[in-house]
Known about the structure:
By secondary structure, the chain is of the alpha/beta class. The protein has 9 helices and 18 strands. The protein has helices at 16-31, 35-60, 220-226, 261-278, 301-311, 322-329, 351-362, 389-399, 413-417, and strands spanning 62-67, 71-73, 77-86, 93-100, 108-112, 122-130, 136-140, 143-148, 155-160, 164-169, 197-208, 230-235, 242-246, 283-287, 294-298, 338-343, 366-372, 403-407.
Amino acid sequence: MTSTPLKFKANCSSFFAVAALGAIALMAGIYHWRAGAAALGCVFLLGPIAVYSLLRLSLRGLRIHVEQQPSAFEGDPVDVQVRIENCSRLPVFYPEVLDIFGPEIHSQKRVLFEDRILPGECVERSYRAFCMLPRGIYSLGPTAVAVSDPFGWFQIRRSIPAERRLKVYPRIQRFGADRPLGVAVTHLLSDVTHRGVGESAEFAMVREYRSGDPLRRIHWGLTAHLGNPVVREFARSTMGDLNIFLDACRSSLVGIGRSSSFEHSVKIAAGLAGSAIARGHRIQLAVSGDPSLRLRPQSGAAQLQRILDVLVQVKPTGETPLRELLEQRAAEVRPGSTVVVMLSPLLAADADLEAILLRWRRLCVQVLAVVFDAATFRPLWEPAPETRESERFAARLRSLGLRTCLVPCAADLGAVFSGDGR
């Protein structure tokens, strides 16, 4: 990112008038042999030089400290503290600090210190900026300080290199917070516990007794009624794992910039992860195109922090197709968990991709297919998909028994994911 040039305001006065008056008085004193006029002229000429020298000396003793929080979310305000410490033996008058805050459109920030700073004194001021630009890691600065003399004759500046960084995370929009079950979109796991048997407290069915079944499971009342032993079966408890797969392959991207399908994918992943972590579930994140961007299933606030650190820097520049990523990670998805796959409409003809999703479905894995509506995204690659290709793709996935969400550009993601996937 190129640095924005710092622009200070000009001084309110100039030393040229005093210097000119001194030169006139000195010349008149010499011409008329008047010692008083010559001495006055020397004072007027040497005065600005002395003021300038003392100003430079005081500037060398200034220490500038600029601090802010290390991270923020898109649209959040950030308070930046600017502290000036005067380590010189001279007072400093009306210092001014300029700082570049990259995540804001009007990035130059001006901090005025309205009084003098005495030797050994430390004064702190702050300014507030907003993270208006999209997610990313921004360099803050450079920072510059300018000091002036009490007469406003001179302004001397000193720059401080840019060494600060700020992580701007994608905005987390929690989905389905009013529902008690599930890991991401809460309706996803509403029927998982009815799809297998296990050790939970929820009754599922009865069946005939088999050799090795524990006696505590025998339904004695029904056994007496039927005349042969039967046992109770209980539903298998869902593990609550959420597996999010992002498609970072640039050949499947639709849309441009902040209005692209990938940026929508990042926002959805952040929202789903935030909702799942809040419910205590484990999250796994994998990004196609870059094998290193993969997080193993874990829970807790530390996992959410790791996910945000990945999402803040990931870009749709990969070459690995989404299908290859799913094939590599298919064995790691545990039965009873939830898979969220971000699907470009350009993948509508990929039969192998659908086969992987159906394989998970047969293993009691809840699959949510997030399909982006190509009709609302500005096409990046030619030829663009047909207007209704995304709708047909989503309808076909629903017909296969997969939960499907059709996401248009600039959609209210909370409204899209609060329904039943349609």
